[in-house]
Every structure is written in structure tokens, then in C-alpha cells.
Amino acid sequence: PAAEQKGRTDLLFKLMNQYLKNDVFSIQKSIVNHVEYTVARSRFKFDDFEAYQATSYSVRDRLIESWNDTQLFFKDKDPKRIYFLSMEFLMGRSLLNSIYNLGIKDTYAEALRQLGFDLEVLVEQERDAALGNGGLGRLAACFLDSLATLDYPAWGYGLRYEYGLFKQVIKDGFQHERPDYWLNFGNPWEIERVHITYPVKFYGKVEETMRDGRKHFEWIPSEMVEAVAYDNPIPGFDTNNTINLRLWAAKPSSEFNIQSYDTGDYVNAILNKQHAETISSVLYPDDRTYQGKELRLKQQHFFVSASLQDIIRRFKDRNDNINDLVNKVALQINDTHPTIGVVELMRTLIDDEGLDWKTAWGITTKVFTFTNHSVVPEVLEKWPVEILGNVLPRHLQIIYDINFLFLEDLKKKYGNDYDRLARMSIIEEGEKKSVRMATLALVTCQTVNGVSEIHTDLMKSMLFKDFYELWPHKFQNKTNGVTQRRWLAFSNPGLGDIITKWLETDAWMKNLDLLSDLRKYVDDPHLQEEWLRVRRQNKSRLATYIEMISGVKVSIDALFDVQVKRIHEYKRQFLNILSIIHRYDCIKNISPEERKKVVPRVCIIGGKAAPGYEIAKKIIKLVHAVGEKLNNDPDIGHLLKLVFVPDYNVSVAELVIPASDLSQHISTAGNEASGTGSMKFAMNGCLILGTMDGANIEIREEIGHENMFIFGARANEVPKLRAQRKEFQPPREFRRVVGMIRNGVFGHQEHFQALCDTVDGQGEDLYLLGNDFLSYLEAQEAVDKAFADRNRWAKMSILSTAGSGKFSSDRTMKEYAEQSWDIQTCKRPL
Ligand code: NTF
């Protein structure tokens, strides 16, 4: 047997070193093999989609090698790991990103070319993985890219929704939602782990017993659902590390409720079980209103419970003492959505691990860190006690206990200041008692951070003022960032090449601060020429796309003015439309001579409205109505166009951002926590028209106020302006354009009255469109003036890119690693 054993070891060792090769022929061999044996098509006849599938599977093979080895290496070193818990990961497509990150893009392109396929065409076959709503989910995706690239021992955990964010279809200018069944044609980027499953419990009751002389609580659930792991390898760039995003799908539990089969109603017993799968079926499409729906709470508990079981299992593989958890595990909760996990960990430690409250509390409060992503209190999730207590009865008990002890402590400090105690309580009293999830997170997490400087300041001074007074040391700022790999290097390769050429290095792909060296060459006419040429090529690509989707022909000499993001009143797409109407009105009323001086513009608006958000949907309709009018007005011609880009998503963003001259980030100051789109645009040399809100303020610091167009009320002025609304008389220009809509200049009057009401007449104009209008128009004029001067614009554009080094998510991740998670890198050697 010893000899046999040795023979086997030798054989395995030999086999283990048979890694896939990355020369053109080996890649072709693996693609064609997948055509034949995975896709089951003939290698002599397969179409673009099948070629995409086979190519993806061959890339996946390579990812798996790197990922297995990374996981083995992590297991061996057993460093403290960071687990990033998020309800949303807006990944977009994977093929191009993976082969770029693995450093095999050119070889793949060549391999495919010889086989008669075009990589660029195949890439388009992939469906976006849209498991997120917008900024919050995309941020999580950028973070994973940076964590892998920086060699941090990290895991992402989330939900494998069968339906991602709905597809937006426009009919007669109205948004319709279509389900995004993205798994329809299979998903080559995931690996189902049939053996990695955990039971997740719901409902039922709690029984109190005595155990070892101590009170013991036992939760007897009445529903059990199985969580099955799906792994998504996330390769780092220019490193051997590939980390994991583990998403959970719900499956009926095989063990539970067996007795119901014995009642004779076998078929119904099975049908009832099928309900379990609904838990992971659909992503909620509202990004800042919570509806207190039971299913949403079940989703939250489902994914954190499975994740925690998985994390504790992994911990126990290598550690005997549960107290060491704090040295091995950091748990990041992305907004309040995973907050129930804090309670689930307490429950596990006390009920399952047998720890006393104090020990469990000591561990729990050291492992969790919390990021808040919103400025206004209305967004903060609250769960009605009734729902929470029904779905998770033991958790509600624990929440009450946490709150009791917390309030006792507060009383010691603040005495009978009951107002304060009521404000700070985890339980909100009132008609409908509810659990304040952000408060729960604040009380239990080691640190809490905002996502831009102004946001963190507002958290301290307004949103969580009481808590800042109590625990100033808990509060941190972590300004958001985006990955320059996906958002600059891969989606704008032309510009990337210029940057590499002038900096004489491509090291900016891992150290974005290097971009600042571009400043040295900003006046060089060669750089300016090359820069503008690439930007024109990108614009021409977008112009073709625009014509395809809307039939509108646009001139690439015009200024491409873009606002793409979720549609929200606070983001003020309506303000943008009003200024477009103003521009239209001005052009109509000037002489042909004067028209010659007008700077031509193509205005592009895109974004989804939450399905139940009526005003947002009207804004979309208005874009179409105004577009219809001015795109077909012979007086206007190419001077002004307005197009709506439907179904804005990650892939559309990759096309639009590199082709934009100007991008708008014009939220009412004090409303946008950060904004990350702005960072992508700035990196790509697009100038920003914005308010002093969110990350715009820091972008301005980096890029220079002279290279941005800033307007509007400042955040500290907003409360006063709101208070003075009753006396405020909007300017004549504002009343005129709103009047044009009301009077039916763009038709469909009946749809727009309610929208106009929000900004004039009886309306409150909560977002101060009327107040900011003139200053916005002035900024727009400054834009025209700058664009008319080609050299000046080129310079400003280069300086935008040069100043965007700070906005890499690599920087953000390093800050979290050092200041919140206390983790070290763990780099796998080749
Ligand atoms: C969003 N928050 C903010 O509105 C953005 O300003 C920010 O850039 C992103 O988070 C990422 O931090 C949300 O979507 C939510 F849901 F939290 F309100």
C-alpha cells in the first residue's frame, strides 16, 4: 500500500502541473473542445452565440485553475479574511473583463480570428448580470475587482437572483418593465456547488428551557429552506489571485417537514415546498424606498444566515476557539440590508455555540463594520416588529435584549432625556412599532462610514447626530471609487493606449495616481490631437448606436451632453430637460445669423425608473415628448438633439461614458451620498457639470474648479431655501419653460401636469429646481464657451483624467482594509 500510495501521489503531482496553456493553439483547442463537448455542437458548425459560450467556458477553465489555487493558498495561510455582504452586485458582463484581467485578451482575439470569429462580436452575446439597482450594487462589483487585484483575502456574499433588474422597454415614450431572466441561456461564469448547502430557518416559535443551570432558548422553526452555493470567480488584474463571489440560491429543503408526505397529500406537499425557491427569485427594483415586504426580509435573512454558516464552518476548519473569530473574520455590511446578520451571529453564538451574552456580544461588536449609502432619513430601512417577530421570532427577542441593554447604558449617560432615548432607540414606538435597522447597525458595528466627505459630515451632523456625539470614534469616511480597469482601460482602450504612451508605462492600471503626470504634457499639441481623435472615434461608435436605437442621426461635431443614472427627483433630470427646452426656445427665437454661433449639442438621457415611481416615469415620457418635437424641427436641425437611451445598464455605460464630452451630476446639494458615475466620466476625460454634492466636491478639489462647471445652492443653504419656498418667486425663464410644457407645446399635456406641479404652482419644489435654474443656465453657457475653444476643451479634458487618480476603488479598498477591517494582503505566488 505504501508504494501504491506513493505512485498515486506522484501521478497526482504530475497531473497537477498540467495547467492549461495560453498560446493561440491551446486556446483554440480548448474553445473547440467546449463547442463539441460542453455546448454539444459540431466543431465544424457553430454560430456566434455558441462561440461565445465555448469561449467563456474555456476562459472559465483558466479562472478555475487560478481560483482553486488561490483558495488553497488562503486555506493554508489562514489569514484574517474580509467577507463583503451585499444584497446587490451589479457585475455586468464577464468575458472581456476576465481575459483582460488574466492578461490573455490579445491571444484570445487572435485565436478566435483564426477560427473565423470576432472577439468584439462575441462579447456582445453576453447578457449583463444585473443583480443590482445602480450605484450601490455597482460599487460592490468595483470593490471585488479591487480586492482581487490588491491580493486581499476577500469573499463576496450575496443572492443569486433568477431575475435581475428589469429590462426597460419604451413604448410611445412610456417605460414598461420586462423581466430579466438572465439565466435563460445558462451562465458560464458560475459554478454550482451542489454539496455546499445550508438550512435556513423561518417562522415558528421559541421555547425556553434550562440548560446547565442557564436559561436556554430554542427556536423551533416552521419553515426551512436550503441555500445552495453558486461560485463566481473574480480574477484580479496582474496577479495570480482569483477571489470568490458566492451567491446563494434557495432550494426546497430535503429534510424538513417529512411528515407532511405521510398525510397522503404527497403532490401538494411537494408543491408547497416549491415556494421556497421564490426567496431568491427576484431583485427588488426600488433603490431607495423600502416597502416592508416580508419576502424582502426573508431574502435578507436567507443570504446572511447561509453566509454566516459558511464562514463559521470555514473558520472551524482551522480554529478550535470561537473567541478567535475576531482575529480571522471581518464582516462588512453594505448598507442596512444585511444588518439582520448581526442578530443571526448573536443567535448562533448563544444558542448554537453556547456562549454567554457578554462573550457573544464582545465578538459580534468586533467583527462587523457598516457602510451607510444615503443622506436622507426616509431611505433608512425599518421593519415592522410584527413582521420581524413573525418571520424571525428569536431574532426579535435578541433585538429587544440588545436594545434594553443599550438604553440602560444610555440612561446612565443621559439620565432622563427621554426625547434622546426615543430618538436613539432601536425600536421606534408609534402606531406601528418597528425596528430601525440603521440604528441596530450603529449600535452593533465596530465602525460606520459614509461614502464621501460631505456625506460623512452630514451623517455626523444630521442623520446620526446623536450617535456621533455618543461614539465619535466609530465614524469614518471612505470616499467611493471605481475600478480603472473596467471603466477606463478596457472600455476605452484607445484612450488607455494614449495614456500609457505618454506616461511611458501602464502602471496606472494599478496605481491611478500616476495619471497626474499627464499634467506635464497638457499643452503638447500632439497629445491634444491624439486625445481628441480617440474621443471622436468613441463618439462615432455611440452615434451609430444612437441611430440604431432611436433612428436619430447625430453629428459627432456636436457636444455630447450626457445624463445617465437612475431616474429620481433629487437627481433632477427634470432640471436638465427644462434647460433643454430653454435652449430650444432660444434657438427658435434668434436670427439665422445668430444661430450660426450656437454650439451644437446632442443631449442624451438614460436611466430606469422604479416601477411604482409615477413622477419618475413621467420624466421619461417628457424626455421623449421633447425629443420628438425638437429632433423633427427643421429650424433646429443639428443644433440640438435629445435622445433617450433605453435600458441603461453596465454594458450601455461602457459604450456611453467614453463617448461623452459633458456629463451631468446635478442633484440638489445634500442629497447624493457620493455618486460614482461622475468618477467614471472624469477618468475618461469627460467634463463635469455638477452641483456641490457628493463626490463632486472632492472631484473639484482634485481636478480644479476651473476644469469643472459648478452651479447651484450649497448643501448648507438648502434647508433655509426650502423654508423660504412660500415667498420664493421662480425666475421668468423658469416659469416660461414650465408653462410651455403645461400649454402643450410638447403634446401629452395630461401626463405632465402632475410633474409640473412638483416645481411650481401649489408644488413645494422640494428639490429647488426653480432656485437653481438661473445659475444652471449660466453654467451651461460657460460650457458652450469652453467647447467652442477646441484647445481649451482638450486641455480641460486631459486635466480631468489627470486629476482622477483619487477615485480608484483600489484606494478605497486600501482605506477599508487598513482603517476598518484590519486585514493584510495574501498574494499567491505562481
Ligand atoms: C447610493 N445609495 C447613493 O445614492 C450614491 O450616491 C452612492 O454613490 C452609491 O450608493 C454608492 O455608495 C443607494 O443606492 C441607497 F440605496 F443606499 F440609497
What's the total count of β strands? 24
Spatial arrangement of strands, main beta sheet:
7-10-11-4-1-12-13-17-18
Cα(first) to Cα(last) distance is 33 Å
CA radius of gyration:
28 Å
The largest sheet, given as strand count, sense and whether it forms a barrel, is:
9 strands, mixed
Point out poorly predicted stretches. Answer: none
CATH class of the largest domain: Alpha Beta
Q: What's the helix count?
A: 33
At the third CATH level, what is the topology name of the largest domain?
Rossmann fold
Any idea what the shape is? globular
Name the average pLDDT: 96
Strand content: 15-25%
* Share of residues in helices: 40-55%
Number of domains: 3
CATH H-level superfamily title of the largest domain: Glycogen Phosphorylase B
Structural class: alpha/beta
CATH architecture of the largest domain: 3-Layer(aba) Sandwich
Which small compounds were modeled alongside the protein?
N-(trifluoroacetyl)-beta-D-glucopyranosylamine
Provide a short characterization of the protein structure:
The chain is of the alpha/beta class.
Summarize the topology.
Blueprint (H helix, E strand, L loop, with lengths): L1 H15 L7 H14 L10 H30 L3 E5 L3 E4 L2 H7 L3 H10 L4 H5 L5 E3 L3 H15 L4 E6 L3 E9 L2 E8 L9 E12 L2 E7 L2 E7 L2 E13 L6 E11 L13 H9 L19 H25 L6 H4 E6 L5 H13 L4 H11 E4 L10 E3 H7 L1 H22 L3 H7 L2 E2 L5 E3 H8 L2 E4 L2 H11 L1 H6 L4 E3 L6 H7 L2 H11 L21 H26 L8 E6 L8 H16 L3 H4 L5 E6 L7 H18 L8 E6 L4 H7 L5 E4 L11 H7 L3 E5 L4 H8 L5 E3 L6 H6 L8 H11 L6 H9 L11 H20 L1 H13 L6 H13 L9
Parallel strand pairs: 1-4, 1-12, 4-11, 12-13, 13-17, 17-18, 19-20, 19-22, 20-21, 22-23, 23-24
Antiparallel strand pairs: 2-3, 5-6, 7-10, 8-9, 10-11, 14-16, 15-16
Bound molecules: N-(trifluoroacetyl)-beta-D-glucopyranosylamine (NTF).
